[in-house]
Amino acid sequence: MPRRTPPGRLQDVASAACRVFIAKGYRRALLTDVAKDLGLSHGILYHYVENKQALFELALVYATDPAALTALAVPLPAPPEGRALQRVKAWAADQATFPVLGAAAGESAGDPATELAGIIDECYAFIEGNQRMLALIAGSALDYPELRDFFINELRAPYIAQLTGYLRCRMAAGMLRPARDAAVAARFIIESIAWFGWHRKGDPGPEVITDEQARLTVRELLLAAFAPAAQSKSATTTHGPSLLGAPPGAR
Known about the structure:
Tetracycline Repressor, domain 2, disordered C terminus, disordered N terminus, 2 domains, 11 helices
């Protein structure tokens, strides 16, 4: 019969599962790896999850909504086929929304530098606020074809295409500085944000960069690269730290 377990203990298991799946990928990750991470015997994990599929389910719950762990009964049973992809799609529908970029797809509403600053802030907030989930998807996607297809073709590709179209339109109108290739420029923006908002957290270097320093500097440099000089300076000053605040994922 399923039983309740102390939330802190289940969260420890879920957190360790996240670390292992991110580091090893779905196929190579084992329950023994999670047990070793926690300093527990392999058999104890079966008090929490029925098998590896259930362990991945637990990791997904932790990555999307840690508070939801308190509602789970253990041992968590093996999920039905396709549940992991359903969870990822539900997360994307809730979190991967970009209204600022969507609103900018039409005619410019004003200062293009301020417009671009809003798009940068929106992308940064999503990546920084959802870095655990993004890392879990990226770490497991190669071994999980359905997850990989959704992440690349339904989540990432449409955003890149929308940002590329926006840049191409504004560059053609002379509102942003031209680039040799708008698609490469879009990837440059996204990858710059991804490294400072996400990947830098796992960098072994000794440099200490605060979250605020990273967010503000990335915005400043990207605006300097694409917005006319006077507008870039104005947008950087106008937006300031208040618009970036605490990332939503922390949501």
